[in-house]
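Our platform keeps sequence and structure together, in a single record for each protein. Such a record has a labelled line for the sequence and another for the backbone structure tokens. Nothing more is needed to write down the fold, since each code stands for a local backbone conformation. For reference, a complete record is included directly beneath this paragraph:
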Amino acid sequence: MTPRTRALERGRVARTVADEYAMTSEREGANEGFGTNEEMSDDVRALTTLVADSDGGAALGADARKDADAMIGKLESVGADATVKPNDDPKIFGYYDVSYVSVGEKQVGNPAGGRFRSPLGRFLFKTIGLEQNLFAPNKIENRVAFTLFGCLPGEVTLEGTFAPAEGVDDGRTVKASFGPPGISVAGGPKLRIGPKSSVVLSTTYLDDHVRLGKGSRGSLFVFTRKSEEKAERDHRRWGIGGLAIAIMLLTALGLGIFGVHELRTTSHTLYSVTVVLASAISLAMAYILRDGGIVAEDADLDDDVGELSEQQKAFLSRGRGDGENKGENVFSSQKA
């Protein structure tokens, strides 16, 4: 077990013990106000667990997709009875990952990401991030982060505004109007390519953890809420190393073209093959050096361990006397 893994495990144990204490204290009335957000329901937990790390649902089999759609339908019935309509609820604003998309029968193409999320698009532009963010009072942002051929980072953004859909007064349905898509590769300038667009989307369920949506052509969406700090970290991570990787790829391309040319036009076979191999190695290095050559575990670390509350810290650090002038906490005991 690596030192980082041991640290992660210790953090998880600490949080588990502290959380159990906090929940017990809350039941006993000694911890009023602990946890201001509403608790995640079993149905929401089951849905988010099913669609987690599924590449927006693309990695799920047919049976799992049916289960996900059924869970969404169950939560939609709960959302229909909500006293506060989603369009009037401030909880609707925030950063959201697009965790699952079920394409409607009348939908043409993928409603989240368009051609970038088609089979060919996912092959050429590997999706590493998919968001739909809502900001007060009526701003909307769709974001697709990708790596070209698995190493060169880029993103496509759609920015626009939303308003209640004309002729629909249900407090759930809005029409979002977007400007032309903005495409940026390797941290370069954002190019506006393509037409303006609009979509109609209904919010069928909303709580502190998820927002469920339904498109006008029957597509279903699961948007998982994340904090502003997590969103900012994701945006930095998605674009890391863009210029350096671009330079390395251009170098590899130049070496490859030169090597092939030398191989075809000269008798220096060994030299030409060496240049081609150098090109291949440069390509491999560009792939390895993407994200600094590491797999970011900090996302799991923050989500699973995170910062302890003051009450949890107090519990984990406080001592208890046993009449022998000795203090003890959950990890060790020592003489005073």
Remarks:
- Residues 3-27 form the longest helix (25 residues).
- The first strand starts at residue 95 and ends at 102.
